[in-house]
Amino acid sequence: MLNCKKAEPILVVGSVALDTVQTPFGQAKEVLGGSATYFALAASLFTPVRLLSVVGQDFPRKYLRRLQLHSIDLAGLQVLPGKTFRWTGRYRENMNEAETLSVCQNVLGQFPEIPAHYRESRFVFLANTDPLTQLKTLEAIEAPQMVACDTMNLWIRTQKTVLKKLLRKVNILIVNDSEARMLTGKVNLPTAVWALLAHGPKTVIVKKGEHGVFLCTNGELFAVPAYPLHQVVDPTGAGDSFAGGFLGYLASQPRFTPREIRRATVYGTVVASFTVEDFSTRRLEKITLKDVETRFQEMKRILKF
Ligand code: AMP
Known about the structure:
- Helices cover 36% and strands 25% of the residues.
- It is α/β, with parallel strands linked by helices.
- The chain has one domain (10-303): Ribokinase (UDP-N-acetylmuramoyl-L-alanine:D-glutamate ligase, 3-Layer(aba) Sandwich).
- Adenosine monophosphate (AMP) is lined by residues 15, 17, 19, 33-35, 87, 103, 128-129, 154, 236-240.
C-alpha cells in the first residue's frame, strides 16, 4: 500500500482558467481549468500543494471552494481587477491534440506576489505558462531541490531563448512529443530526448497521448502505455494531471531512486486516466488514493512480462 508519510509540499505556478471545450462527446462552457489547477488537484492526492497564480474578479467563488476542499494552499492565488484567463479548445476524433480556438490572457500576464512560506518549497512544478513567469518564480525560491517544468508550442515559437535558460535550471522536463520535436528540430523521438537532455534536465519525459509516455533518466530508458480506457471524454489536463501524479508521488517518498521514478511514471499515468473520463476536473476531484492504487495494481499486471 502507498505510504505518503514524508509528503513534501509542492509549489506549482501556472494558469488557473475558465475553459470552454468541445469534444466528440459534447462540450463544457467556462469550466474550471488551467495547467496549475489540474496539477494541484492531481498532486494533492499525495502531498500538500501551494498554488501560485492569478485570477480575475469574475472567477467563481464555488471554484475556489472546490480547490480548498482538496486542502490546496491558496495563499498565492491572487484575485486581481480584470478577467480570468480563458482558453477555448476543440478535439476532433483524434483526441491526441487540442486545437486552440481562442486564448484570452487577461490577468494572467501579471506576476503573482509570492507568499513567504512558498519560498521555502523544495519541490517546484513550473506548469505551462510563459517562461518568464516560470523563471522568475524559480529564482524566488530559496533552495529548490526538485524542479520540473512543462511548456507548449506557443512559448517554443515565441520565447525559445528564455525557455533554454530555464531548462538549464530544471531537473525534470515534461513535454509532449510534438513539443520535443519542435524544441530540438529532431523528428526521431529518442534523438529528440537525447538532445533535450543536453539542454540541462537529468530526466526528460515525453507524453504521447493515448500512446503513453517515454522517459529517459540517468541514461536509462523507460516507457509506460496509457491506462486502457474504453472512452476518453475530454483529454484536457491529461498532461498536467500526469505531472501532478508523478511529482506528487515523488514528493511523498523519502528517496528519488530510479525505481521510484518508474513508479512515479505509473502513478502519473493512472491519475491522468481519471481526468480524461469527464470534462474539466469533475472526475479528478472525485477520486481518492484508493482508486489510484487499484489502477496502479492493474497497470502492474499489464506491464509484467
Ligand atoms: P493540457 O491538456 O494538460 O495540455 O492542459 C490544458 C490546460 O492548459 C487548459 O485547462 C488550459 O486552460 C491551459 N492552457 C491552454 N493554453 C495555455 C496558455 N497559453 N498558458 C497557460 N495555460 C494554458
